[in-house]
Design goal:
The complex is a heterodimer of chains A (371) and B (369). Chain A is built from 14 helices and 5 strands. By secondary structure, chain A is of the alpha/beta class. In chain A, strands 2-1-3-4 form a 4-stranded mixed β-sheet, with helices on both faces. Chain B folds into 2 domains: 236 residues, no CATH class; 100 residues, abc type-2 transporter like domain (abc type-2 transporter like fold, 3-Layer(aba) Sandwich). Chain B contains 14 helices and 5 strands.
């Protein structure tokens, strides 16, 4: 016990001696959270619209006005030439082309069916889909309105009124959703990458061999190497949660204690992975690349950016083996939905099992390599 | 003699890289695995929506509407109940995505004159999918209603929608240019930063300084092998994208490769600069990682559209090299445009390369202090 305390003090001194590292560890995550928390959104604000109006009728102008009044669209150019509009789109000067044929109004009055063309720049994928659904809603509402003015029918029956309510995030603020996820990612980097690097450094410098001839037991050594990063990661999580609360106003419905409890379990899994990697490699460079490779796969497959349930079946199975996915799920459920331990028992259980297995494997592998 | 020394130095660097099989394998496999894995797995479309039904008075009309939802193939009913109590626990444990709540007198109102009310309660903790659920729900109900009221002739505006440059909104077409940008910056910036700072940390930089090599030559020698490696990465990623996912190449492949080389130069210069400014491998690695990995993934428009970001963040994206490269790569691959349209982005990247190289040369001093 006494030895462990001395070792821990040494580790902390070593980490905190490097001022630059401390700044990196504590400041960078906060800066990242501030920048990235704002960047990670699919929300489409205003789309630039180019109008090709060959009709010049009251109805076509009315629709353009209606689109602009929604503030989702702003007309940046207009001409009767579709070629010119296409040119604008190639140069990224417009996101949407709205094109009316010359008989648009006549057809509506005569046949009650008008046709128009909506061309979207799908280069940005996600944005194009959202923009399209906004446009479709405005156009449908406008069609109803024209219908009412053309033939004022009495509202007789067979009307369904749909009201929609988004729970947990009624304003559809993407930041509430992303910030807890980004926090997980930052904690993971400290937990696995930094820990792996720290051990491999001793290997690279040769001090690991020196340690193995001291009366130090293996478990004490490993505990001394891992506990500092466990603590630093938890401190980082607290800092991140403070930023999330006071800068991003992320709702925290659930128990913060539960968040820390889950994080403590999760970090054992993350540290286990870091330790395991450190047994596989010889240099810091290798450690970094292996960790990087693994973290990158874990992150992109975790549901941080794209929903896990949109993935193909096999990828969803793979995601079950991904601790990052479970912890992100826990964070989002507890913070945004106020989930209790009962609700998140399954992911927490998986994390605990994962942590135990990863740690055991790592320690065993470590003993095999050095012993 | 200097030229010979440089050649020998470059050969030595190549040996260093080739000797470390583990790192080399990872470096060569990374782009391939990533393009294939993420090409299959990263999608933002919504397929399987788990719906809970709250129907206080089941009746022909409500059942009919429910079957409409199931018939789309997108919705799956996971629970049915007469009271709203079931929703909260289902949402909290993540077992349902949305609930459809019928009014008690839904069927009566549908036949009468009052509008029949239905409430869609949606788990919007993920606003993106939440919005999609909402849109699909509206579409199903509107379809049902327009069938009901087919008698009274409603005005319809039929919209023909075209998604230009990526008609199927295939995610992989959008991610491949971004993934290439990400992998390139990773290999180039991180590897050079670490390789240079390792010489510093081990003290071998002092050996280099008594050699006849000039500082610029040391940088060239360090950078050249990684330029080759990065180029190999671009090729494998592009071949995987083309052969596995049939990502279109509408423009000039030669131009794309040239632009990729330019972008790699920017990343390499960034790596040298980081190494010159830091003292240890760990510090170099952390700086390089924090400066490249997340900003290039999130501030570049690879996943999240730049037009969605708050205005004050836009200037920050201008200094992210990947932002410009992604515009170029998508322009060439998806739109088939050339330099006449992409000259501005190319100019920005060139300026970045020059500036960073100059800064790296200036701050790189292999002299003893």
């Amino acid at each position: 016990m006494q030895t462990l305390r001395y070792l821990l003090r040494k580790e902390f001194q070593q980490i905190f001696r490097d001022r630059f590292m401390v700044a990196q560890l504590l400041l960078m995550p906060i800066i990242q959270l501030l920048l990235l928390g704002n960047a990670a959104t699919f929300e489409v604000k205003t789309s630039r619209m180019y109008v090709v109006d060959r009709d010049h009728s009251e109805i076509s102008r009315g629709l353009v006005d209606r689109m602009q009044a929604s503030r989702r669209f702003v007309a940046v150019g207009a001409s009767p030439s579709l070629d010119l509009a296409n040119q604008w789109m190639l140069q990224r000067k417009t996101d949407v082309i709205l094109s009316f044929p010359s008989d648009f109004e006549r057809n509506i009055v005569r046949t009650r069916v008008g046709e128009l063309q909506l061309i979207l720049n799908a280069e940005d994928g996600a944005a194009a889909g959202v923009t399209q659904s906004y446009a479709a809603q405005i156009i449908a509402a406008y069609a109803n309105e024209i219908g009412a003015t053309l033939t004022p029918v009495s509202r007789g029956g067979q009307q369904i009124e749909v009201r929609a309510r988004g729970w947990y995030n009624p304003e559809l603020d993407y930041r509430d959703y992303m910030v807890p996820g980004i926090l997980v990612q930052l904690v993971t980097v400290v937990g696995s990458l930094m820990a792996a690097m720290n051990i491999v450094r001793e290997k690279e410098l040769g001090t690991l061999d020196q340690l193995s001839v001291t009366p130090l037991s293996q478990s004490t050594f490993m505990a001394a190497k891992l506990i500092p990063f466990w603590i630093i990661a938890l401190v980082e999580l607290s800092l991140g949660l403070i930023v999330a609360r006071f800068v991003f106003h992320v709702p925290m419905l659930g128990s913060i204690l539960l968040v820390f409890g889950a994080a403590a379990v999760y970090l054992i899994a993350a540290l286990g992975i870091g330790l395991f990697i450190s047994t596989l490699v010889d240099t810091q460079q290798q450690a970094m690349f292996v960790t990087f490779f693994i973290i990158m796969i874990y992150l992109l497959m975790s549901g941080l950016f794209t929903p896990v349930r949109s993935m193909p079946e096999w990828a969803q199975w793979m995601a079950q083996l991904n601790p990052v996915k479970h912890f992100i799920e826990i964070m989002r459920a507890v913070l945004l939905k106020g989930a209790t331990l009962r609700d998140i028992a399954r992911p927490v259980g998986i994390l605990a099992v994962f942590g135990a297995v990863a740690m055991t494997l790592a320690v065993w592998e470590y003993g095999r390599k050095t012993g | 003699m200097n030229r010979n020394a440089l050649r020998a130095f470059v050969v030595k660097e190549f040996h260093h890289i080739l000797r470390d099989r583990q790192t080399l394998t990872i470096l060569l496999m990374m782009p391939l695995v990533q393009v294939i894995l993420f090409g299959y797995a990263l999608r933002s479309d919504v397929k399987d929506i788990r719906m809970a039904i709250v129907d206080p008075a089941p009746d022909h009309a409500t059942l009919e509407l429910q079957s409409r939802f199931v018939a789309t193939g997108r919705f799956r009913i996971v629970a049915t109940s007469r009271s709203t109590d079931i929703i909260e626990p289902l949402f909290r444990s993540g077992k349902a995505d949305m609930a459809l709540i019928f009014d008690a007198d839904f069927a009566n109102n549908l036949r009468g004159h009052e509008p029949a009310r239905v409430l869609a309660a949606i788990d919007a903790s993920d606003p993106n999918t939440g919005t999609t659920y909402m849109n699909y729900t509206r579409a199903v109900i509107l379809g049902y209603q327009s069938e009901l009221s087919a008698a009274n002739r409603q005005v319809r505006i039929v919209t023909e929608t075209r998604m230009r440059f990526n008609p199927s909104l295939e995610s992989v077409n959008l991610f491949v240019p971004g993934l290439i940008a990400l992998v390139l910056v990773l290999v180039s910036a991180l590897m050079t930063a670490i390789s240079l700072s390792r010489e510093k940390e081990r003290g071998t930089m002092e050996v280099l300084l008594v050699s006849p090599l000039r500082p610029q030559q040391i940088i060239v020698g360090k950078v050249l092998p990684y330029l080759v490696l990065a180029f190999a990465n671009v090729l494998t990623a592009l071949i995987a994208a083309w052969a596995v996912f049939h990502v279109p190449f509408r423009g000039s492949v030669v131009l794309l490769l040239l632009e990729a080389t330019l972008y790699t130069l920017v990343s390499l210069a960034l790596g040298v600069l980081v190494a010159a400014r830091t003292t240890s491998q760990r510090a170099a690695m952390l700086t390089a990682m924090l400066a490249t990995m997340l900003p290039n993934a999130l501030l570049s428009g690879m996943i999240f559209p730049i037009s969605s970001m708050p205005r004050w963040l836009l200037p920050v994206t201008y200094i992210v090299p990947a932002r410009w490269f992604i515009v170029i790569a998508r322009g060439i691959m998806l739109k088939g445009v050339g330099l006449t349209i992409l000259w501005k982005e190319t100019l920005v990247l060139s300026a970045m390369a020059l500036l960073l190289l100059a800064a790296a040369m200036r701050s790189f001093k292999p002299r003893m202090e």
